[in-house]
Amino acid sequence: MEREGWAVRWFAAWAVVVVLAWAVLGWVLAVHLAQREALDDAARQAARMARAIAAPIAYRAPAAQRDESLSGLDVTVRERIAEGLVLRVKVWDAEGTVLYSDEHRLIGRRFDLDPTATDLLVHGGAHADLTMLDAEENVLDRRLERGTSAVVEAYAAFTSRDGADLLFEAYFPAEDLIQQEHAVAVWLVPAMVAGPVVVGLLMFALGLRMSRRIRVAEQESARALQRMFTAAAQERRLMARHLHDTVLPELAAVRLTLEAVEREETDPERRTVLGTMLMAVTRQISFLRDLLTGASAPSPSRVGLKAAVDVLADQSGAQGVPVDVAVRAVELGDAAARLVLTVVGEGLRNVHRHARAGRASVSVRLEDGSLVVEVEDDGCGTSTTALRSEHGLGLIADTVADLGGETHLETRPSGGTRLRVAVPLSELEGEVVATSRTRHG
Q1: What's the pLDDT tens digit per position in 297-331?
Q2: Where on the phi/psi map is residue 332: left (φ > 0), alpha (ψ -120 to 50), or beta?
Q3: Does the pTM of the predicted model rise above 0.70?
Q4: Rounded (5°) CA angle 49-51-52
């Protein structure tokens, strides 16, 4: 549950970061688009003025006619200036000579046109941008920015009445542009920010849904594991009852009969056969008692994991193999604890059956985010083919693999065998509490 909460918080934090980053980017783009739209509108306005008031200029006509047309332009321009629609107007020829300006001192002066103005004269069209009025041609224009926050400079190419390609230039106060920019931004920003916000909310809802589904799947996996080990425990109890009530008494009776017959038998060959049979029956009785001991292991939910492992260790010690126990993860869910007992019980049974060991050890601990169970002995070693069998360690290996864990069985060079099982804690139900209790038996 804690891991799930951390994952949801991490997902939510990143969703907020992404949405905020997108919102800031959306705001910047919206302001840029709004400014570009306002400047384009200024360029269109300059083009309309060029066609309406500057196109009648008689550029190639005699000086008197040209002066007359320029005088008419001057009257119209000053009306526009008086209305506050424009701050300054200039008309240029292709050589960079000012043919007209409401600032008459500029008329007849020649300046180098910037690349944008030259390109408009060649290809036509209109262009507008904010200006700092710091160019050489603006030497008499700089007073225009007093009383206004900024100045917009707009160019528009046009053709005079007698077919000359000329350039119309107008300076507009930026207040209108700024107001238009704000109006466009107010419309664009919500549209551009709302999208990522909605996507972020959908992502967060999807994350919560996925988190819940993962939690349900983990709970179902834990319940399935619980049912599996509960069924295994019930099966062991039934087997133990059957062994205790039926099989072992009958085998004990057979052994007593064989002992009596062997004592009375005088033929050496028949005594040898009877002795062999008696040894086989005795071994099977011992083997079944081992199974009965394993099947009667205490419930970890009743006595605790540490005590349950100690019982298995005591049973092993009673059969001649003392066991050192170190349990450092003592509080597990019942299904996980039964998995630990199953590994320990099967490991110790293999020690008795195959290892011919003098001592064994059991370790249960946390390591790198996994629950690790190890059973070691100092015996003669065993084959790793036991992990591929359909019983015992083979079933344990399959169960551990289903939980995303690993099972290793190895013979050490110095002698003895180590069974190691590691299962990720994320796949086990319940919280694990680390401690450092150690028992030597």
Answers
A1: 566 666 677 888 888 888 778 778 899 998 885 56
A2: beta
A3: no
A4: 60
